[in-house]
What we know:
The complex is a heterodimer. Chain A is an all-alpha fold.
Amino acid sequence: MARYVLTRLATTIPILLAISIAVFWGANHVADPTVSLTLNPRIAPEDLAAYREHLGLGEPLIGRYWQWLGNFVQGDLGTSLVQNGAEVWPIVRTAMANTLVLIVIAAIGSLALGIAIGTVSAVRRGSFLENAATTGSFLGISIPPFWLGLMLQLFLGLYLANWLGVTPPLLPTAGLYSPGQQGFDLVDRLRHLVLPAMALSLQLVAVYSRYMRASLLDVMSSDHIRAARGRGLPERTVVVRHGVRNALIPVSTQAATDAGQLVGGLIVTEQVFQYPGMGRLFVDAMLGGDYPVLLAAVMITAAAVFLVNLAADVSYGVLDPRIRRGTG
Amino acid sequence: MARAEAALAERPVVVVWRRFASRRLSVVAFMVLLITAAVVAGADVIAPYASGQQNLDHVLAPPGDDFLLGTDTLGRDTLSQVLFAGRISLAIGVSVALIAAVLGTTVGLVAGYLGGRIDAVLMRFTDTLLALPLLMMIILLARILGDSVTDVILVLSLLGWMALARIIRAKALALREEEFIAAARAMGASSGRIMFRHLLPNLVGEISVAVSLAVAGAILAESTLSFLGFGVSAAHTPTWGNMIGGNEGFMTVEPWLVWAPGLAIVVTVLAVNYVGDGLRDAFDVRSDGREREPHRGRSKGGTASRRR
């Protein structure tokens, strides 16, 4: 097992390096961090040139990449090219914290809901509930998350507030806090999380409920379930104790394997709801040509997704002793 | 007995079609798709206004007689724009799915049939791509390549073949142990011939299902990319995604600007997904390439009662 983990980690490093080169090259190729300055007629060309020199943009790419890599390996993420020399790490740290809050809420909510829906549709096959769940999951994977976000803003944000006649709206459609908010207010923060978390969750619920349904159907047809029934256990106990518990193993690993897709949902959701997390940081840095921030965002996200995937593969063997890799 | 003989005499296409036709929802979805394709293809005739025609006297007009779904900030008729945009969005979806199918099938066949070191290298590569945050990579590649329709097709197909490659590999691994492959090999068929003349026809089901679902994925991916502003440029080519992105700011004033292209995406993708699901049942394939679960009883003649 340890060997397997080490091999996986070792093969990950060249991939992360390749990504960093591609991002570095790409970012420098497509966007200029000083472009907004060139549009300002009051900035003299000499000053601009001096500023570009100061940022190190005149130097050859390879040299800058080496410098970036050397610093990165030592844990120094550098300084932003756009935000006037601000250090990258604090920026990334704040964004990561915001994103984690959103992910945790969305993941817990959608796993719970998905497992419940999946269980019901596996146990009550052919019922109205199962048909509704199937239709719902088809809708869930067919609605673009960004559009769902916009519709939530429109209906649960704007129209609901108009209907209730409340200002400011009950469920805010953007940002982290209400304007003018002083200090930390849990209720206000949670209200700002409701819509983004919903937008992020719908697709996940659809997918998780399908996983759960398939997995539970698989488990329910196995011998130990028949044995449990044969011992005369009530059906409820059979389903919950022997069925659902075993069915959760493939579901949780499958969910973890989908972590990469979750990132896609985050980019979109954070963009729609102007939520200051990693996804938005990535998009902004991409558009602004701020490659130190961009690289940090991409490398950290990619590494996190790799680790979650690895954890999923390893836990699969640990949770289900029938599947062990190699000598285990 | 007579029924079994009749079934044997039937061509596979007929069998598959009959099974597909027995699922009403999938047939309806298929018709919805045909209509959608016909309408966007005939947009030049059907659309009330020309593509991109600006009616500056009617900026942000509400839905009415002249403009069924209102107009945008340049006075462009929303309905017409949705039709013309649909042409591009559908074309991208289908092209990406087809190109990705060729890539994925080739990689999967080569890896699964040849095996050994080639398999290890190809699958390592495939798994790596699968383990990356996909949308991030799509955005990066799209930024590097550009914002034309061709660029977007290229980006999405280059990053869209991995799932199919895995499925095809799994099937190829199983099939290569079959007698008929051994027979072909004994008769001196080359690896290429075996892969593309003997294995490929046995994978038609898997490929069809994957392609249909890939169309749905590609339409969603394109719309997401264009919505974020990294896809097809709204300046010269409307797509459903960039229509939503461009009109997002006017959503509260003129909700139809965002509703119409969004509903177009949902209806199309939903229909594609139902068709794919119907194909999955008709071809009797499982999404992960494993054999069907044995406990799902299947009545001999038909599959109408079967559900997944």
